[in-house]
Amino acid sequence: MIESVYAEPKILQLTGSNAETVTIRAKALVFVDPVSQAILRHLEQIAPSEAPVLIIGETGTGKELVARHIHERSGRRGPFVAVNCGASSEQLADSELFGHEIGAFTGAIRRREGWFEAANGGTLFLDEIGDLPLALQVKLLRVLQEREVVRLGSRKSIPVDIRLVAATNVDLADAVAAGHFRLDVFYRLNIAQVRLPPLRERAADIPALVTRFIEKYSAICSKTLRGLTDKAMRKVMDHPWPGNIRELENVIERAVLLASDNGAVEACHLWGALPTVRRGGQITSHGE
């Protein structure tokens, strides 16, 4: 589930099972920086259409959050289904996306619908679309053009009504030039494009994200914290954040663990090591 908060600052965040920590996804996105506010206005323009959307941005910038926001603003009543295109082998990805019939391959002991059918009436989010094998790109193009899928081991077409949103952290134009991505698929996907700049290029979002993450992890740790000291905030603002929002959340989570209850997060807490208990009960830090 995604929760949209439209008081100032505007925030999108994952909640429930979607917010599990075992992920490199960004789980909160704010729109304070003028660059981010322009992105939000663009999202509100393209969301109600049926056009495919291509989201481009570095890992951890919030691409899935943007995809979920597009779905919720689209008016579609069906589900939002997220699939990582780089997480499976070609045969498994074929079955996962398009489904299969009994006996389609070794181990196919029952009929199974694919993710396109599962997303019928809603939105299918294909993350890391640049990792999709060329053979499956051909099948994807057919689905987009014909609005139907054919399961592995079947000759019967199944109509599907989906809004496709794809995301990538690589330049698909370069992938096309290198022969790793089909030009016709790129053109079909790149109708409505959203570019998510890295966090370092929308630095005014950082304080609001810090506040959100301190509130979140303080509640988890049953602590009361007074935010960041001035020195700590300067360190945060000066850091280039190559891991973007996901890295920022990890750093703040660790800092909250290290900070003293009823105190503030200090600069030493941000990238400080968690304590280690040695034999004999002596407590030291990894940095020693």
Distance between the termini: 42 Å
- Regions with little confidence, pLDDT below 50 for 5+ residues: 1-7, 19-24, 283-288
Rg over C-alpha atoms, rounded to the nearest angstrom: 22 Å
Rough shape?
elongated
Please identify the structural class as seen in this structure. Answer: alpha/beta
Amount of helix? 25-40%
Q: Characterize the main sheet.
A: 5 strands, parallel
Order of helices and strands: EEEHEHEHHEHEEEHHEHHHHEE
The count of strands amounts to: 12
Short description:
The chain is an alpha/beta fold. The protein has helices at 34-46, 63-74, 90-98, 115-118, 134-146, 172-177, 183-189, 206-220, 230-238, 244-258, 267-270; strands spanning 2-5, 11-14, 28-30, 53-57, 80-84, 123-127, 148-150, 157-159, 163-168, 192-196, 275-277, 283-285.
Which terms summarize this structure?
288 residues, alpha/beta, five-stranded parallel sheet, three-stranded antiparallel sheet, 11 helices, 17% strand, disordered N terminus, disordered C terminus
Structural write-up:
The protein is α/β, with parallel strands linked by helices and 288 residues long. The protein has helices at 34-46, 63-74, 90-98, 115-118, 134-146, 172-177, 183-189, 206-220, 230-238, 244-258, 267-270, and strands at residues 2-5, 11-14, 28-30, 53-57, 80-84, 123-127, 148-150, 157-159, 163-168, 192-196, 275-277, 283-285. The strands form 4 sheets. A 5-stranded parallel beta sheet has the order 5-6-9-4-10.
